[in-house]
Amino acid sequence: PREPLVLGIETSCDETGVGIVRGRTLLANAIASSMDEHSRFGGVIPEIAARAHLESMTPTIERALADAGVTLEEVDAIAVTGGPGLAGALMVGVSAAKALAVSLGRPLYAVNHLVGHVGADLLTGDALRPAVGEIGELELPTVALLVSGGHTSLLVVRDLVSDVELLGETIDDAAGEAFDKVARLLGLPYPGGPHIDRVAADGDPQAIRFPRGLTLPKDMAKHRYDFSFSGLKTSVARWVEKRVAAGEPVPVADVAASFREAVVDVLLTKALAACADLEIPRLLLGGGVVANARLREVAAERAAASGVQLRVPPLSLCTDNGAMIASLGAQLVAAGHDPSSLDFGADSTLPV
Ligand code: KG4
Ligand code: ZN
């Protein structure tokens, strides 16, 4: 039998994503982003994101169908991000998915955004080359570290459709959010992650020893897999303020490199601790912060040193997208999972 053709819709933050897969094969991954509209505010404005999703939804669906070379009538199932994310933004995707499912008479699968990030790694296709590792079977169980502007979560995935456990997450800012806030105080544009990365390339990562949140022995006892980045951000702010107050120049490259090093250190210390504790020698990375050059570099070094196999999907599948949602939907169809009933609502805090 032919593998199911699944259309996935993602609207949890600022990206309107519509992806189409056949089983594990990626056919289309159309994206529209409202980031340009948010950048002058220095953060994603929920109402603007929701309105932009509404405007982009139909054209993005049409683009995905054209890219995949299929018609809407050929689609076997619809998948949509049910949460977590921005409530108003999620609601636009959920409404569109319901409308499609009802009008086409096809099953609808509401999926978790974080699990979707893991589902991205299943996809293969001519256009796909993983950033690190080989295309091939995703071996389970795996530890997954998901880092973006909206989430910083550590998961253990034993079965994609039935056994995903949240080990820990940030107790304050997301890692990407910390990059954005520190970039702002260094006078760099929003979103700041790529700018910090660029500036840090000329800096000394050992110049300033910024704090590593929740890594002291007492914190590791209570918050072993949780993250905290707000103390780090404050520490960078204080350090810069002191320099300015003393009338001394701020060594922006050194601050950026030292800050980046602290974030990367914490992320990988905790992720690799999970691999060791659970005796799972596999680590999957996902989310927009995976674009960070230093994160990828140190991840490769430390994973190799600990005998952990590292997987990093191509960046187009790490940032929020519809293909990862379609991929997870295809797994649910293949597993014979019941579709969602049509009365579910978007859930901004949906657990994994
Ligand atoms: O996954 P994503 O595109 O959107 C969501 O937040 O859901 O991630 C965007 C986040 C932003 O906070 C951005 O500053 C950060 O990822 N980011 C980076 C880099 N590129 C993007 N952070 C660090 N280094 C980068 N190179
Ligand atoms: Zn995401």
UniProtKB/TrEMBL annotation:
Signal peptide: none
GO molecular function, one term: tRNA N(6)-L-threonylcarbamoyladenine synthase activity
Membrane spanning residue stretches: none
Obligatory cofactor(s): Fe(2+)
Chain ranges of the Gcp-like domain: 26-326
Positions annotated to bind Fe cation: 113, 117, 320
Residues that coordinate or bind substrate: 146-150, 180, 193, 197, 292
A Pfam entry, by short name: TsaD
Catalysed reaction, written as an equation: L-threonylcarbamoyladenylate + adenosine(37) in tRNA = N(6)-L-threonylcarbamoyladenosine(37) in tRNA + AMP + H(+)
EC number from the UniProt entry: 2.3.1.234
Cofactor note: Binds 1 Fe(2+) ion per subunit.
Subcellular location(s) per record: Cytoplasm
Keywords: Acyltransferase, Cytoplasm, Iron, Metal-binding, Transferase, tRNA processing
Family under the similarity heading: Belongs to the KAE1 / TsaD family.
PANTHER family tied to this protein: TRNA N6-ADENOSINE THREONYLCARBAMOYLTRANSFERASE, TRNA N6-ADENOSINE THREONYLCARBAMOYLTRANSFERASE, MITOCHONDRIAL
Biological function: Required for the formation of a threonylcarbamoyl group on adenosine at position 37 (t(6)A37) in tRNAs that read codons beginning with adenine. Is involved in the transfer of the threonylcarbamoyl moiety of threonylcarbamoyl-AMP (TC-AMP) to the N6 group of A37, together with TsaE and TsaB. TsaD likely plays a direct catalytic role in this reaction.
Stated name of the protein: tRNA N6-adenosine threonylcarbamoyltransferase
Lineage of origin: Bacteria, Bacillati, Actinomycetota, Actinomycetes, Micrococcales
